[in-house]
Design brief:
Layout: E1 6-11, E2 14-19, H1 30-45, E3 51-55, H2 67-72, H3 81-91, E4 96-100, E5 103-105, H4 107-110, E6 117-121, E7 125-127, H5 141-149, H6 151-160, H7 166-172, E8 177-179, H8 182-198, H9 201-212, H10 218-232, H11 236-249
Parallel strand pairs: 2-3, 3-4, 4-6, 5-7, 6-8
Antiparallel strand pairs: 1-2
Helix pairs in contact: 1-3, 5-6, 9-10
Bound molecules: coenzyme A (COA).
Length: about 250
């Protein structure tokens, strides 16, 4: 638990990080960045945690960096919690799923590029106003957004700063699913959580790691995959799955 604007809970292998500063539309302060970074590092290192969920409140996901903080305490050093959070979300070994309602501005959108599965409701408004604020993209978004959604869409969103909704985010591939209501967001998070928790954690971690670290060539990547595959084929989870299938086939 935390009273700094991030509510951190651990329940049945799931670490949930909930933005909890609704009066400021969940704009992120230095303390909140630090709590997010701490949670993600813990999730990455702690074997009892299999999944991270990131959520906002019903009326807002996250209005981005607290602009008062930017003015009074600009993050010039990599030790600053802003960068610590971004490094931690990029490095997190466990799957991250996110549920979005209401505004998702700046880092409130770019953090989603590091999530594995994202659901957003009709109330969501995404915006990346870096250029109009005299800034530039962060969180690797100038690389990841064109890669995930295409260069032309990224230019509309990162250069023009056009706002967009959940349906547009879904059709561009920024999110997995656009749903109607906040309840639908919760139901989708619950569905994904149940599915992910049933899978062997090592297979999930390795699948995710392989997708995020492409090799120079397809052949090189096959070799990297092959090394993991050869190890996992002897794992207890794989052996049990093979035997379960074969015993049903009899
Ligand atoms: N930093 C600091 N305070 C913020 C904030 C931010 N990023 N976003 C919202 N707030 C504050 C507002 O100043 C307001 O505070 P007040 O009640 O003390 O006046 C409160 O949160 C509610 O915001 P408001 O603008 O009234 O809500 P809204 O529903 O009309 O609009 C947003 C929501 C998110 C669209 C709008 O607040 C906004 O554009 N915020 C700035 C987003 C931004 O530029 N983020 C930085 C990206 S790098």
């Amino acid at each position: 638990m935390s009273d700094c604007g991030i509510n951190t809970t651990l329940d049945d292998k799931v670490l949930t990080l909930t933005f909890d500063r609704p009066e400021k539309k969940n704009a992120i302060t230095a303390d909140m960045y630090q709590a997010l970074a701490d949670g993600l590092v813990k999730a990455s290192e702690d074997d009892t945690i299999h999944l991270v969920v990131i959520k906002g409140s019903d009326s807002a996901f996250c209005a981005g960096n607290d602009l008062k903080d930017f003015l009074e305490n600009p993050p010039h050093s990599n030790d600053n919690p802003v960068w610590q959070f971004l490094f931690a979300i990029e490095a997190c070994r466990k799957p991250i799923i996110a549920g979005v309602n209401g505004p998702a501005v700046g880092v409130g959108t770019t953090l989603l590029l590091h999530c594995d599965l994202v659901v957003a409701s009709q109330s969501t408004v995404f915006a990346l106003p870096f250029a109009s604020l005299g800034l530039c993209p962060e969180a690797g978004s100038s690389l990841l957004l064109p890669r995930q959604c295409g260069a032309k869409k990224a230019a509309e969103w990162l250069m023009l700063g056009d706002r967009f909704d959940a349906k547009a985010a879904e059709s561009a591939g920024l999110i997995n699913r656009a749903v109607e209501t906040a309840d639908d967001v919760e139901a989708t998070l619950s569905e994904w959580t149940q599915k992910l928790l049933k899978l062997p954690i090592e297979s999930v971690i390795e699948t995710r790691r392989l997708m995020r670290t492409p090799s120079e060539s397809v052949r090189d990547h096959m070799e990297v995959e092959g090394d993991v595959f050869k190890r996992l084929i002897n794992s207890d989870a794989a052996q049990a799955a093979f035997k379960a299938f074969l015993s049903k086939a009899k």
